[in-house]
Specification:
By secondary structure, this protein is mostly helical. Helices cover about 95% and strands about 0% of the residues.
Length: about 220
């Protein structure tokens, strides 16, 4: 058996696989990072806008309440109710931030599992290439058959181990994905609740002034 030639060819194969693995690592990391970064940026913009919407409305109504020349209690009551709605809307947006943060953590874990699963698949494919190389060498060098059989068996055991790791990563990926979806739905409900409370606040202010306008004119 020409061990020098065999070692050289095996080393070339492993170097090629190492370079390929490095390229895959960079691609997977960049893809996951950019995807998460865009999701986070859009979520932050939307939640900030929602918080400012309710917060600004509450401050505006409070300013109207304190500076208004109206002395009718029936008008002040809707204004206070509106401030309550706006305040709860702002609180909902803060809850949404917390839920979105938890959602992000679960989705990051899911992406990490997906990345590890992809890398394990690449490793298995490379092990298959190495096994095929050894099978080919075994047929050309029958005198050292036992050596190649032992190496091939070691690779088969390693492949089985990596396949078990893939199953574990898939289970974790599924679990993190479900948890991420649950908290994503809760975050969406918090957004809907904040918008509904904002609408109720606007409606309360509007109804308060519309209902009491005739009374104000009669008093004058």
């Amino acid at each position: 058996m020409d061990f020098e030639k065999f070692t050289h060819q095996l080393l070339e194969l492993k170097n090629k696989q190492a370079q390929e693995m490095s390229i895959y690592c960079q691609q997977f990391d960049q893809a996951d990072f950019h995807m998460l970064q865009h999701v986070i940026d859009y979520a932050k913009m939307g939640i900030k806008a929602l918080f400012l919407l309710n917060g600004t409305a509450a401050v505006s109504v409070l300013t109207l309440f304190t500076s208004s020349s109206l002395d009718l209690k029936s008008v002040f009551t809707p204004l206070l109710d509106a401030v309550t709605f706006f305040s709860w809307g702002a609180i909902c947006s803060i809850i949404c931030i917390l839920l979105a943060y938890i959602t992000q953590i679960f989705y990051q874990d899911e992406c990490a599992c997906m990345g590890r699963e992809k890398m394990l698949n690449v490793i298995i494919r490379q092990l298959d290439e190495e096994k095929m190389f050894l099978v080919k060498e075994k047929t050309t060098q029958p005198n050292t058959k036992d050596f190649f059989v032992s190496k091939i068996e070691d690779i088969n055991v390693f492949i089985e181990t990596k396949q078990n790791e893939i199953s574990l990563e898939q289970n974790k990926e599924k679990k993190f994905g479900i948890l991420g979806n649950v908290f994503s739905i809760l975050s969406f409900l918090a957004v809907v609740g904040s918008l509904i409370l904002f609408g109720l606040g606007i409606s309360t202010v509007k109804k308060g002034f519309i209902i009491e306008t005739p009374t104000i004119l009669e008093n004058k």
